[in-house]
Design a protein that fits this description.
By secondary structure, this protein is an all-alpha fold. It has helices spanning 2-9, 16-45, 53-89, 94-121, 127-160, 163-169, 172-189, 191-196, 216-252, 256-290, 297-328, 330-342, 344-353, and strands at 197-201, 206-210. Keywords: Cell membrane, G-protein coupled receptor, Membrane, Receptor, Transducer, Transmembrane, Transmembrane helix.
Length: 378
């Protein structure tokens, strides 16, 4: 347009009016053409929708199988832990109470998996009520699980570092009170999931996810930081303090019985952080995507893949606590032998097969002679 104006400046004066009229028409036409070009330029530069079809196919192919395996193994393992604790241990100590509640927390995870498994294959067909409840149960299980592992670390700290004080503090009654507090905190922290989760149609696909009112980014930041702080940062600080003091005390005072209990609960703690820390890191990186720090489509897809893999890794943790109890808890193995001896189904199957099994176990009463001052769980 500047070039046209320069040309008109050098035209003779008698033709000026005619040329002005002509230039006005030309300018209008040029403006329309320029606007059209600008529109297409902006359209080409605009961010295009990021296709996630490959992510959905990946989820539909692998997640249902993994969810099913975790559900079966976690349900069986944690149910056995609960049966052993209630039938044989009878919740005599604070540690027993925490172990029972930890197993219940793990069961909350696995009981929600059949719903998520079907969701990955098809779409959410269970309605808004179950969408809220299942999502809430899942998050309550996450929070309560890490809180009870944290309480078990504090319990070991009291038993070893504050042994005199622990004689009065580490009772089953106090364990029940602190467990109730933990469940209330976990339930309260999970309320946003219960409030904002909804089942709704999105692009001809029924989904189950949060619908935050007002500013979506603000709520997303809040929920992500809540999970990272309550589910990772605070427990990490508390457990690091407890175990550093425990190790310092045990260096000066060797006690094999206490050492075994510490190794078991330390293993539970390490396994938890190994299996859940990657998930916390991925949801934090996804927060950067929501806030606009990460804009690349391929990076977004990679984060979706990583979220699915790390979430499965975290869910596998629910199956591992019973395994830790079995391999590191001598009493737990003995109780399992007694349980299977008294259970009729395995014996009936073996008789039907023509096989006779003889159990060589100690009497049940011999397992209840533990010191009240140092009750070490399983």
């Amino acid at each position: 347009m500047l070039e046209l104006i320069d040309i008109f400046i050098f035209f003779p004066s008698q033709e000026l009016e005619k040329k002005k009229m002509s230039s006005s028409s030309t300018e209008s036409s040029e403006a329309e053409i320029s606007t059209l070009y600008e529109y297409y330029d902006n359209y080409n530069d605009a961010p295009k929708p990021c296709s996630k079809e490959s992510v959905k196919r990946f989820a539909a192919s692998f997640l249902p199988v993994l969810y099913t395996l975790v559900f079966l193994v976690g349900l069986m393992g944690n149910t056995l832990v609960i049966v052993v604790l209630l039938k044989y241990k009878r919740l005599k100590s604070m540690t027993d109470v925490y172990l029972l509640n930890l197993a219940i927390s793990d069961l909350l995870f696995v009981l929600s998996l059949p719903f998520w498994s079907y969701f990955t294959i098809d779409q959410w067909v269970f309605g808004t009520a179950l969408c809220k409840i299942i999502s809430w149960i899942y998050l309550v299980g996450f929070y309560s699980g890490i809180f009870f592992i944290m309480l078990m670390s504090i319990d070991r700290y009291l038993a070893i570092v504050r042994a005199v004080f622990s004689l009065k503090a580490r009772t089953a009654f106090h364990g029940l009170i602190t467990s109730l507090v933990v469940w209330l905190v976990a339930l309260t922290a999970s309320v946003p999931e219960l409030v904002f989760r909804e089942s709704f149609n999105e692009h001809n696909y029924t989904t189950c996810k949060p619908r935050y009112p007002g500013n979506f980014t603000t709520w997303k930041i809040f929920s992500t930081l809540e999970i990272n702080i309550l589910g990772l940062l605070i427990p990490f600080i508390v457990m690091t303090f407890c175990y550093s003091m425990i190790i310092k005390t045990l260096v000066h005072c060797r006690n094999e019985k206490k050492n075994k209990a510490v190794r078991m609960i330390f293993a539970v703690m390490i396994v938890f952080f190994f299996f859940w820390t990657p998930y916390n890191m991925v949801i934090f990186l996804q927060l950067l995507e929501v806030t606009g720090v990460i804009r690349d489509c391929q990076m977004s897809r990679n984060l979706d893949y990583a979220l699915q893999v790390t979430e499965i890794l975290g869910l596998l943790h629910c199956c591992l606590n019973p395994v830790i109890y079995f391999f590191m808890g001598e009493k737990f193995k003995k109780y399992l032998k007694i349980l299977f001896k008294s259970w009729q189904l395995p014996g009936d199957i073996c008789k039907w097969c023509g096989v006779h099994i003889t159990y060589h176990t100690e009497s049940t009463s011999s397992f209840h002679t533990q010191s009240t001052g140092d009750q070490d769980g399983l």
